[in-house]
């Protein structure tokens, strides 16, 4: 087929991956050979609740929650290192930036419990009392906790070093109201006072206000620092298309408005190099702004039909298991007669023109399923992955160097989430089914998660090194280890040079 | 038009017919007249005339009727029927001649009238049909007029309707515009109202929040607290500093430092990009100059002023280019210079390319009809002509030669020609003589050589004979020893491999050999061996074994049979003089050499087989 000509390695691997269930490589691993060059090994499934599973920032540990228990495992061996018991069901966890502490938020109780990895006996409990708690996060130094009270009355900054408590009043209740710069020096905070939007920039080291300015927005929806920490993007609510760019010192650098009188911005993403700002909107387009003039470079539409033969359309196709003649035993053995966990499927390269399945949005409901719901740049800045909510089964991958559509992955079911490998241009996608999908410039592959029963992958989470991938289902998680050997490593590494 | 013609023409023709008829009739004999009358009698009117006549004249009133007729006729201008009276008293006598003349004339008249009537009738008919035709035409045209009138009315109606529609649409558009305006107003008002409401609500919300804040926060809530086992150190290991004005200033400083760094970084990047682009520009410029310089001369010769000045500029620029210092200068002047020069050159290039284009198009246009370009036909004709000329010239030369030869022949015979011979210059004669002697010497040498060669050949033949005898004896011996060799094969292999000084990597082949050899030895037929071994002729001595030595011998013989030239058999002699073992190698190498020329294909085969062995 065409696909094999384009990316023989990957597809061959994929077929081998999807075909057989490999033997165990190490204790507890269910392995699946990924061709001669690489292998994908799956750990056994561990219990999990409310999708709370996070790698520590240094990549050594993996924290996961089971009801009120917090389990910290070694990220490689998956042996339990620590086990902490909280007072109630954990609703949110977060590692401190230095990987020394873990914060567990129990919103229902208005409690935050902090655990130390170095000193298991050390503990800290923050009670917000009757004020309630809706959000909790670490400051970048890992010694302060920012708690947002109910109704966004205030943000309390608790210090683990001193007894001091700081309060920040008037935080705005919005999509993304708190953002730290990558270097952890500054905090930008959306505020609302007297029916006007403001942004405060605070110095994280001593929580001093550095800048305070009003933004020209009707209803500020979110703010986000550029990765270099010098530019702050602020965008208006979906009722108006407006994105504003502020310098660190509060100067308005530029404002961009693509159109009026229609639903506006839905998602925003900075490229890792801070060079591009991708803005996804309700009109089903992504607009890329550049960092020199802050003007639009290009516009990526998401048409439902793809005609350009240069674009590779990977279509996930259900594959009926091949009947092996002569081997059919009568009566069929029990194992074979058991319910099939899921139908086999693999990618096919569809020949253009391809029409993608589109969803008719209900116009009379709030939050219509249209527009660009998710977008993410690859770590090497070369690719942009997007999902249009009106075409929920497709992931669009754009080549940023050529500013054109590169590939479209059409899944059988709606895409739940996708995440780029933090090291290379490799995208992991999950659709809530029993498979995890990987795309790289060389091709793409669908991998069935082995194990008893269904493992419905609702979310994925890459390890820092890109060597492993946590797959989260409703009540379990497992780790997928991608053993990349030299050959594959170089194959993937080619793209990395372009940065 | 046609109709008119048909209407007029018959009249004319009938008239002329009538005239001719008339003239002929006048000369007609009475018999013919009679027949005419018979013809005329076909007309129904004539009957009536007869009957009338019969009624008019009876036996009794002959006299009266004659007189009546006479009267009538005289009144019509006919001569009287009666003879002219000679006397008054004499009764007038009826003049028969006159009567007959009168009758004839009357008949003629009658005929004439009949003809005229006929003509008139036909004309009448024609006119009637014309009339009908015209009436038809008229009716048709009338109809047409009617339909077009109706159409016109329809179109007018449509036009009116369309106008009406247009007006309606205009109205609708206006209404829509109004609607839009209204809706926009409504939207705007709603938006303001919404905003207002929102603001109000938000204020209320804020108030509530404030109240809540007061209620929740100000009341000493014991619950709001942090329990911590012990405070941990800061991540950076430092102690927290007091908030002072200094820290604020320091924060500002740091912020600006970060910003500055970012801007510097970006500036650097932009500078790099700029430098890159400049390089590209410079290169472009250089290339343009080099591209344009060969064409510089021509326009200058043409004394084209504008290009001339520009070219001098180019030269200046080229001079500037050499100064590398301009590279790094990013000041405006340099930039301007660069861009200007590039622009100039670009213009020149453009004009040049355009000129070339024009030329090309001209050539294309002229290519077909211009006399300057020789057409293919002309070319071919010309070449044909030239060929013919050449042929003629050749023939001429031939004849001249023949003539010359004849002359020479005759001159040989004739004594007179001796005089001609003598007319050669003395010097020439001498040279010829010298050449002649030289030639003779060469001839002698050649003959000597030939003699020696024949001798050598005889000798070689003898030697070959001897050799063949020896070989036969050797083979015989071999054949006799065959059975003893068979079980000693492996030994021999070792011996030979050691002898050939093979490297270690050849050992596996050596070990694998015996297994292969066994079926070989059993039939012990030499032809089998040879046929097999011609193939397995080794490329290098390292893979030698005994079997191959045998093969070499047979191969050797075959070669010597094939190549009977004495030169090639020479090396074999050398081999023969060697000892038995040595000879086997040497001859093999020799035969290899021979093989190289003679049977390279077998050589290649040997290579292949050797490769396959391990």
From TrEMBL, chain A:
SMART domains, per the entry = WD40 (SM00320)
Which InterPro entries does this entry report, sorted A to Z? Centrosome-WD_assoc (IPR052778), WD40/YVTN_repeat-like_dom_sf (IPR015943), WD40_repeat_dom_sf (IPR036322), WD40_rpt (IPR001680)
Matches recorded under Pfam families: WD40 (PF00400)
Q: Which residue ranges are recorded for the region named Disordered?
A: 1-22
Q: Coiled coil: which residue ranges?
A: none
What cellular component terms from Gene Ontology apply here? microtubule organizing center; MWP complex
Protein name as annotated: Anaphase-promoting complex subunit 4 WD40 domain-containing protein
Automatic annotation (TrEMBL), chain B:
Which intervals of the chain are annotated as region Disordered?
292-317, 498-529
Q: Which organism is it from?
A: Tursiops truncatus
Q: Name one GO cellular component term.
A: adherens junction
Q: Where in the cell is it found?
A: Cell junction, Adherens junction; Cytoplasm, Cytoskeleton, Microtubule organizing center, Centrosome, Centriolar satellite
Any idea what this protein is called? Afadin- and alpha-actinin-binding protein isoform X7
List the residue ranges forming a coiled coil, or say none: 131-218, 376-403
Which PANTHER family does the record cross-reference, listed alphabetically?
Answer: AFADIN- AND ALPHA-ACTININ-BINDING PROTEIN
For this UniProt record, give its keywords in alphabetical order, as a comma-separated list: Cell adhesion, Cell junction, Coiled coil, Cytoplasm, Cytoskeleton
Please name the GO terms of the biological process aspect recorded for this protein, alphabetically: cell adhesion; intraciliary transport involved in cilium assembly
Q: Which family does it belong to?
A: Belongs to the ADIP family.
Q: Which gene encodes it?
A: SSX2IP
Q: What is its main location?
A: other
């Amino acid at each position: 087929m065409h696909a094999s000509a384009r990316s023989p390695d990957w597809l061959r691997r994929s077929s081998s991956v999807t075909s057989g269930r490999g033997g165990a490589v190490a204790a507890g691993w269910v392995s699946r050979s990924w061709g001669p060059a690489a292998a994908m090994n799956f750990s056994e499934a561990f219990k999990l609740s409310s999708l709370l599973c996070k790698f520590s920032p240094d990549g050594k540990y993996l924290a996961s929650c089971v009801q009120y228990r917090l389990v910290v495992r070694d990220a490689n061996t998956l042996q339990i290192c620590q086990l902490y018991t909280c007072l109630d069901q954990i609703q949110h966890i977060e590692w401190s930036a230095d990987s020394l502490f873990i914060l567990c938020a129990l919103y229902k109780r208005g409690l935050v419990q902090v655990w130390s990895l170095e000193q298991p006996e050390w503990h800290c409990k923050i009670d917000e009392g009757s004020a309630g708690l809706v959000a909790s996060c670490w400051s970048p130094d890992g010694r302060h906790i920012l708690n947002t009270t109910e109704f966004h009355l205030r943000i309390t900054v608790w210090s683990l070093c001193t007894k001091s408590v700081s309060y920040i009043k008037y935080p705005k209740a919005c999509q993304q109201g708190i953002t730290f710069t990558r270097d952890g020096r500054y905090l930008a905070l959306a505020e609302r006072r007297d029916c006007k939007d403001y942004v405060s920039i605070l110095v994280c080291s001593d929580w001093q206000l550095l800048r305070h300015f009003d933004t020209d927005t009707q209803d500020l929806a979110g703010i986000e620092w550029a990765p270099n920490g010098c530019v702050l993007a602020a965008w208006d609510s979906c009722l108006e298309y407006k994105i504003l760019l502020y310098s660190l010192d509060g100067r308005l650098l530029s404002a961009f408005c693509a159109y009026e009188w229609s639903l506006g911005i839905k998602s925003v993403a900075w490229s890792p190099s801070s060079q591009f700002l991708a803005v996804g909107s309700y009109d089903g387009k992504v607009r890329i702004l550049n960092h020199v003039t802050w003007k639009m470079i290009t516009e990526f539409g998401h048409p439902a039909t793809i005609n350009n033969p240069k674009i590779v359309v990977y279509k996930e196709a259900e594959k009926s298991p091949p009947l092996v003649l002569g081997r059919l035993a009568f009566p069929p053995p029990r194992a074979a007669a058991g319910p099939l966990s899921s139908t086999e499927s693999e990618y096919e390269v569809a020949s253009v023109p391809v029409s993608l399945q589109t969803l008719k949005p209900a116009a009379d409901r709030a939050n219509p399923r249209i527009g660009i719901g998710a977008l993410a740049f690859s770590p090497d800045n070369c690719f942009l992955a997007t999902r249009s909510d009106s075409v929920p089964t497709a992931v669009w991958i754009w080549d940023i160097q050529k500013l054109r559509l590169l590939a479209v992955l059409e899944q059988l079911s709606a895409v739940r989430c996708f995440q780029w490998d933090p090291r290379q241009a490799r995208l992991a996608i999950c659709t809530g089914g029993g498979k995890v999908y990987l795309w790289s410039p060389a091709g793409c592959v669908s991998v069935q998660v082995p194990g008893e029963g269904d493992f419905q992958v609702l979310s994925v989470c890459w390890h820092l090194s890109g060597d492993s991938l946590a797959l989260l289902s409703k009540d379990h998680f497992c780790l997928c280890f991608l053993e990349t050997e030299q050959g594959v490593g170089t194959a993937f590494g080619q793209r990395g040079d372009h940065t | 038009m046609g109709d008119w013609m048909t209407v007029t023409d018959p009249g004319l023709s009938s008239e002329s017919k009538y005239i001719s008829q008339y003239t002929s009739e006048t000369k007609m004999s009475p018999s013919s007249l009679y027949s005419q009358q018979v013809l005329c009698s076909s007309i129904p009117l004539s009957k009536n005339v007869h009957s009338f006549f019969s009624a008019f004249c009876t036996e009794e009133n002959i006299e009266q009727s004659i007189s009546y007729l006479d009267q009538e006729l005289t009144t019509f201008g006919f001569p009287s029927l009666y003879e002219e009276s000679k006397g008054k008293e004499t009764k007038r006598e009826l003049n028969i001649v006159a009567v007959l003349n009168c009758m004839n004339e009357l008949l003629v008249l009658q005929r004439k009238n009949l003809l005229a009537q006929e003509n008139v009738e036909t004309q009448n008919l024609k006119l009637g049909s014309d009339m009908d035709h015209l009436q038809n035409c008229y009716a048709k045209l009338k109809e047409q007029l009617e339909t077009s009138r109706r159409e016109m009315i329809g179109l007018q109606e449509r036009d009116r309707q369309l106008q009406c529609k247009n007006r309606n649409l205009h109205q609708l558009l206006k209404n829509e515009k109004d609607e839009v305006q209204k809706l926009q107003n409504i939207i705007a008002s709603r938006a303001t109202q919404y905003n207002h409401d929102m603001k109000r609500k938000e204020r209320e919300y804020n108030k509530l929040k404030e109240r809540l804040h007061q209620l929740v926060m100000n009341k000493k809530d014991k619950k709001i607290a942090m329990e911590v086992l012990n405070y941990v150190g800061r991540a950076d290991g430092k102690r927290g500093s007091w908030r002072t004005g200094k820290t604020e200033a320091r924060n500002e400083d740091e912020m600006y430092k970060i910003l500055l760094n970012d801007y510097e970084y970006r500036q650097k990047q932009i500078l790099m990009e700029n430098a890159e682009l400049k390089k590209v520009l410079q290169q472009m410029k250089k290339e343009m100059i080099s591209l344009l310089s060969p064409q510089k001369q021509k326009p200058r010769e043409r004394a084209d002023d504008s290009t001339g000045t520009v070219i001098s500029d180019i030269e200046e620029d080229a001079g500037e280019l050499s100064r590398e210092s301009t590279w790094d200068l990013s000041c405006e002047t340099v930039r301007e210079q660069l861009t200007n020069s590039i622009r100039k050159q670009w213009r020149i290039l453009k004009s040049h390319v355009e000129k070339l284009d024009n030329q090309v198009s001209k050539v294309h246009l002229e290519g077909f009809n211009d006399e300057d370009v020789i057409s293919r036909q002309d070319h071919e004709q010309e070449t044909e002509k030239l060929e013919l000329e050449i042929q003629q010239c050749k023939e001429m030369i031939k004849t001249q030669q023949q003539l010359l030869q004849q002359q020479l022949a005759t001159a040989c015979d004739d004594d007179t020609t001796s005089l001609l011979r003598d007319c050669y210059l003395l010097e020439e004669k001498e040279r010829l003589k010298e050449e002649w002697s030289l030639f003779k010497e060469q001839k002698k040498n050649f003959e000597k050589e030939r003699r020696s060669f024949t001798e050598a050949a005889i000798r070689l033949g003898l030697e070959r004979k001897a050799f063949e005898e020896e070989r036969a004896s050797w083979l015989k011996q071999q054949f006799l020893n065959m059975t003893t060799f068979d079980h000693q094969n492996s030994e021999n292999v070792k011996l030979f491999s050691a002898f050939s000084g093979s490297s270690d990597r050849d050992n596996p082949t050596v070990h694998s050999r015996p297994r292969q050899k066994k079926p070989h030895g059993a039939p012990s037929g030499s032809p089998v061996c040879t046929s097999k071994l011609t193939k397995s002729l080794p490329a290098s001595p390292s893979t030698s074994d005994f079997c191959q030595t045998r093969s070499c011998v047979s191969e050797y013989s075959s070669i010597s049979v094939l190549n009977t030239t004495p030169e090639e058999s020479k090396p074999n002699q050398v081999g023969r003089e060697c000892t038995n073992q040595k000879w086997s190698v040497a001859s093999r190498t020799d035969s290899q050499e021979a093989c190289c020329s003679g049977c390279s294909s077998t050589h290649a085969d040997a290579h292949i087989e050797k490769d396959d062995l391990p």
